[in-house]
Write a structure and sequence with these properties.
Layout (H helix, E strand, L loop, with lengths): L2 H30 L12 H25 L1
């Protein structure tokens, strides 16, 4: 076997090991910063009002469409 082929094989093995290490680091870094401990996010009254108004408009549009179908 020629030296170039052996070097390519070693390079591929090293790349696999680096990939495995990166995956392990990513998995462990996700567990150290727990996002669940921050609690629930609160929404401002204005934001709730905008969402409510948009939903009421959607329901009204649907009700008008439904009435027109009958």
């Amino acid at each position: 076997m020629d030296i170039i082929a052996q070097l390519k094989i070693e390079r591929d093995k090293a790349a696999q090991q680096v990939n495995a290490l990166n995956m392990a680091i990513a998995a462990l870094s996700g567990t150290t910063t727990s996002k669940g401990s921050q609690g629930r996010r609160t929404m401002s009254a204005a934001a709730r009002g905008r969402i409510s108004a948009a939903q009421k408009a959607r329901w009204a549009r649907w009700a008008r469409w439904r009435a027109a179908q009958k």
